[in-house]
Structures are given as structure tokens and as C-alpha cells.
């Protein structure tokens, strides 16, 4: 049966272990605030969204960066236990990625939203609510997240976006790889060594081609079935049999490239418990979200199909809305970005990896 929403009262400390050294671990309290009223059920009717186009981070104006910074200042200024606070927003990721909760229909199994077909829809919803909260804090329903266009190997996307770099702003995070600040080129494969820019770019194009173009089925691209009872407690970035190519490949690559290699678990971006403490996380995932649409609608050979198994479509998650209320959503309602009001501009440099000849 499909994954249901967990009992938020049953929360355990979240555990994060280094994939290469099991003695290195972090244990964190990622238990989420439990609002007094009962959860709302999402509907497109209750939650209208203005159509908006998320822009590439390296293309937005100074005025937009100022607004974006302001949005995160406001979110970071909320008390930690406010469901809309940056603190809680970051904890949501930790809670559902590091086993703070158990599966609704089988409490012997911990809930995990990575390493399977839940990955793309869960993260789409995560950004959707995060963006709505930022909109409401700004009082601007047209505000959108940016996307970090790291797959762009030609027009300026493949560096850490400048808006996240200056020390001391609300978009800054100190726990990043200091060797990868601009102008360092993004490496989508953690194994790419060397600093020859032609080699880096070629490897990046090759990785994009492999993870998106060659992933012709939903199983390959999105990941495989995760239902009530599926236990992937022991899946790691090294052993993740249900994981899709986009997640295990270029998506993880950016996490490792951004996190600080001098910290035990490559915090912040390099590990689940802390990744979304870095505001760049949401821009990173916007690009993953854009690439899902690209994969689905815009590759040679015509549209590609998401999973249509009812255990996929009917899976449910909890998030908080902009009024700090708990809201229950389904995977089904995440599959069409246009219904959520979200779109992306077409990116000319996509053609480099779409037409890459390995
Ligand atoms: Cu929930 Cu990029 O990971």
C-alpha cells in the first residue's frame, strides 16, 4: 500500500552516519512542531498559486537578490519552533531523511523519502511550501525561488551562484567547500579530479547525459517502488538499490561539491541532516525539479512517463503551509507543475548535454 503520513508524536533522534566511516556520526533532534489543530488536506482549490517562473540564480537582478535576501532574513528571524522558521524548514529535511519517524502502516519500518520514487515528488512539495512561506513573509505572491543552473556548461550556471557567496547575508552559509567558491567550476561527479576546465565540462555533460537522457523509464530516472513496508534503513549513498539516476548521480554530486570536506559529514550540503540549513539547497533542488520537467516533456523522442502505480500516486506527506498549519499532500498532486503555478524558462545550454555524444 502507499506510504501514509506518519504519527508526528512518535519521534526519535535522527541519525546520520558517514558513508565511508561508520564511527563518524551525528545524532540530532529533528522532531517537528505539532500544531494544535488537525491537519488540513491539500486541494488546488484551497491553495491557489499565482503562475510564476523560477529564474536561474546567475541571471537575476540585484533588486531580486535583495528581495531574496530579505525573504530569508524574515524566515531566519522567526522563532525556532515556528513551523515557518528557517530552523524548522531545515529540520523537515532531516526528519524525513534520517529516520525520525516510522511508516504509518508499519511502525517497525522507519520512513525515508530518499533513495526511491518518493524523492522527486517529496522535494517538489518541500520547495512549494518553502516558497509559499517566503512569499507570505514578503507579502509578495509573485516571489519565486531561483534555480541553480549547475548543468549549464556554457552560459555561466556551472559555478556557485554569486548571490549565495557574500559572507554575512541571509543567503550565506559558512559550511561550504572554500575551494569551490567562484570561479571554481562545478564538478557533478565527486570523482572528477584535476582542474582542466575542458575535462570538467566534458565530464559534467557526460554525467547529465547519463542521468537524464539515458534514463528512459520512470524506474531509471525517478527511482523504484517504495511502499508501506519497504525498508531501506541501510541504504546509503553507496548502496541504494531503489534510487533513480538523477538522485544518485548529479543531484548527489552537487551536495558533495558544495559541503565542507573538512567537516565529518561534509556539512552542510554534504549530508541529509544539515543539507537544507544552507539556503543554496532550495536553489539546488529547484534545478532538480526543473530537470524533472525537462526529462518529462522536453527531450528528443517525446514525453516520458512518470510512474503510474497507485502506491506511488496515493503516497502522502506532511508539510506546513504559510499559516503554520500542517497540511497533507499526495504525490498525485505534485506531478503537474503547471497546476502548482510553477514553471521554468527554457535554457538554451541544455542542448549541450541533451545532444552530448559520449
Ligand atoms: Cu533531500 Cu538533495 O536531498
Automatic annotation (TrEMBL):
<keyword id="KW-0479">Metal-binding</keyword>
<dbReference type="GO" id="GO:0046872">
    <property type="term" value="F:metal ion binding"/>
</dbReference>
<keyword id="KW-0883">Thioether bond</keyword>
<keyword id="KW-0732">Signal</keyword>
<keyword id="KW-1015">Disulfide bond</keyword>
<keyword id="KW-0186">Copper</keyword>
<keyword id="KW-0560">Oxidoreductase</keyword>
<protein>
    <recommendedName>
        <fullName>Tyrosinase copper-binding domain-containing protein</fullName>
    </recommendedName>
</protein>
<feature type="domain" description="Tyrosinase copper-binding">
    <location>
        <begin position="278"/>
        <end position="289"/>
    </location>
</feature>
<feature type="domain" description="Tyrosinase copper-binding">
    <location>
        <begin position="114"/>
        <end position="131"/>
    </location>
</feature>
<comment type="similarity">
    <text>Belongs to the tyrosinase family.</text>
</comment>
<dbReference type="GO" id="GO:0004097">
    <property type="term" value="F:catechol oxidase activity"/>
</dbReference>
